[in-house]
């Protein structure tokens, strides 16, 4: 029975000393700790069975995911070359991008325009069904579209997809519960973590979901 596994990796910590909700804004890059997180995950993936047999690498086009992808490939590609395989180049796919958010550019903590100001509370009263931008259902739908295309294009393969917390968890929650709505404070998608989803290539049925947090100690 052919099955494809997609390894969703969340980007590492971002350098954001002003606590800005950066969403899709340009110019937000991995911090030194974020790079160390991704390096830990890269070592984990390079040593994991089957990782050198990856068939394709996809990434959100934002700065922090591009940088995460580059660090991962710095570990994965040499292992591939040592075994006679071609190095991989990333494909940037907007279906993996961070969720749209009307609060982009605002500070999360104190100050003018802070996320938790009383004037903004009407937008965050229901954390399971956010009204501040792209819905969880929209997010899960675009990630699902990406997954179905990848399974068709890469049957019986191992795939790497670098994305963000909300897209990864919204899609996983949909698969596990039948709906993508959730409390964003209860997500299990740590920075630089790996969520691996295996699907039957013929039926699209989910055969397994595993989770690893190789950067937990960084």
Task: Tell me what you see in this structure.
The chain has 218 residues and is α/β, with parallel strands linked by helices. It has one domain (3-100, 134-212): Phosphoglycerate mutase-like (Rossmann fold), CATH 3.40.50.1240. Helices cover 31% and strands 16% of the residues. The chain has 4 helices and 6 strands, in the order βαβαβαβαββ. It has helices spanning 32-47, 63-82, 136-153, 165-177; strands at 3-10, 56-59, 90-92, 158-163, 194-200, 206-212. It has a 6-stranded mixed beta sheet. Strand 5 (194-200) and strand 6 (206-212) form a beta hairpin. It comes from Bifidobacterium kimbladii. InterPro entries: His_Pase_superF_clade-1, His_PPase_superfam, PGM_Phosphatase.
Topology:
Layout: E1 3-10, H1 32-47, E2 56-59, H2 63-82, E3 90-92, H3 136-153, E4 158-163, H4 165-177, E5 194-200, E6 206-212
Parallel strand pairs: 1-4, 2-3, 2-4
Antiparallel strand pairs: 1-5, 5-6
Helix pairs in contact: 1-2, 3-4
EC number: 3.1.3.-
GO molecular function, one term: hydrolase activity
InterPro entries: His_Pase_superF_clade-1, His_PPase_superfam, PGM_Phosphatase
Number of helices: 4
The topology string of helices and strands comes to EHEHEHEHEE
Q: Specify the CATH architecture.
A: 3-Layer(aba) Sandwich
Summarize the main sheet.
6 strands, mixed
Strand content: 15-25%
Radius of gyration: 17 Å
Q: What share of the residues lie within helices?
A: 25-40%
Low-confidence stretches: none
Kindly report the average pLDDT value.
Answer: 89
CATH superfamily membership: Phosphoglycerate mutase-like
Largest beta sheet: strand ordering: 3-2-4-1-5-6
């Amino acid at each position: 029975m052919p099955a494809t596994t997609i390894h969703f990796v969340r980007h590492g910590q971002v350098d954001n000393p002003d606590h800005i909700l950066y969403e899709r804004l340009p110019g937000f890059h991995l911090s030194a700790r974020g790079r160390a997180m991704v390096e830990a995950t890269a070592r984990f993936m390079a040593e994991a069975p089957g990782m050198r047999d990856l068939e394709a690498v996809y990434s959100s086009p934002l700065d922090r995911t591009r940088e995460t992808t580059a660090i991962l490939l710095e570990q994965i590609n040499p292992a591939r070359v040592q075994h006679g395989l071609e190095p991989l180049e990333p494909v940037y796919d907007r279906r993996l991008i961070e969720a749209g958010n009307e609060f982009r550019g605002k500070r999360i903590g104190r100050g003018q325009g802070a996320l938790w100001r009383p004037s903004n509370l009407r937008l965050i009263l229901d954390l399971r069904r956010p009204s501040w931008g792209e819905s969880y259902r929209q997010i899960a739908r675009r990630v699902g579209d990406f997954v179905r295309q990848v399974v068709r294009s890469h049957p019986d393969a191992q795939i790497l997809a670098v994305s963000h917390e909300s897209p990864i968890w919204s899609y996983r929650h949909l698969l596990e519960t039948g709906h993508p709505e959730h409390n964003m404070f209860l997500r299990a998608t740590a920075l630089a973590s790996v969520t691996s989803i295996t699907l039957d290539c013929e039926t699209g049925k989910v055969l397994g979901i595993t989770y690893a947090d190789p950067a937990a100690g960084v």
